Structure formats: structure tokens, C-alpha cells
Amino acid sequence: MEIWINPACSKCRSALHLLDEEGAQYTVRRYLEDPPDADEIRAVLERLGLEPWDIVRTQEAEAKELGLKEWPREPGERERWIGALAAHPRLLQRPIITAEDGTAVVARSEGAVRDALGRVPGSAGNPA
After folding, report:
1. Which of 29, 51, 68, 117 is most buried when burial is the number of CB atoms within 10 A of its CB?
2. Domain of 105, in residue numbers
3. 56 has a pLDDT exceeding 50
4. What does the alpha-carbon distance between residue 52 and residue 28 come to, in Å, rounded to a whole number?
5. Distance of alpha carbon 23 from its chain centroid, rounded?
């Protein structure tokens, strides 16, 4: 599994702590230093089962500068939103865990992190 984090984020640090406590094998991606491109964002949205506007941090300065709260949230605007996320990775909700079963979760709570852990083939929550 991979976890997209901002090390300055307390939710990210909490998720990493829980993953470590559970002995999970994972890779860390510091998405502000190694930003996902539009294709990677599309792929993670598919895995999440969400739309780009569902994973935007609307209170960030960049969101306010772009006027994201006023952008239409409809299929025809999807690529515009994805482009904004690719150009401004700070707008991404965090942390995002991509699980080994092909799904992903926005892991902002202990329950969401545990959900991702349960999606690992052969784990206690998901027998192989």
C-alpha cells in the first residue's frame, strides 16, 4: 500500500503511527514534494470512487484564489478540477491510502486507516 502524506499534517502523522503500530508494509509519498500528475489523480479517484471536488481542501489559500467554491460540480467540469489538483497538490485531502486490493481511502480517521488495513490480502480483516 502507499500513503500520500504531508508531514506537517497531524492526520497524516496519526495515520502513519497507526500503520506502524499494526506492522503494515507501506510506501510513503510526500505528495507536495512528489506531486501526482493528472493521470495519477484520475486513477486514485477511480480507486476512491469519488469525484475530484470530493477530495479538495476548499479552505486552502489556493482554493480561495481559484474560487473553487464557485466552480460547478458536474461531470463536464471534472477535468478542470483534476487540473487544479495536479497544479496545486496542497488542495488534496490527506492522507490518501491506496490499498493493495485496488481501492483507496481518504484516511482522516482511525476507522478509515483500519478500513485500508482490512483491505490487505491475507490480513486479519481480509483473509486471502
Report:
1. 117
2. 1-31+94-121
3. yes
4. 22
5. 21
Model pTM?
A: 0.88
Q: Which residues are catalytic?
A: 9
Are 58 and 79 part of one and the same domain?
Answer: yes
Q: What is the pLDDT of residue 61?
A: 94
**Same-domain pairing of 41 and 89:** yes
Starting from the edge strand earliest in sequence, which strands make up the sheet with 27-30, in order? 27-30, 2-5, 96-98, 104-106
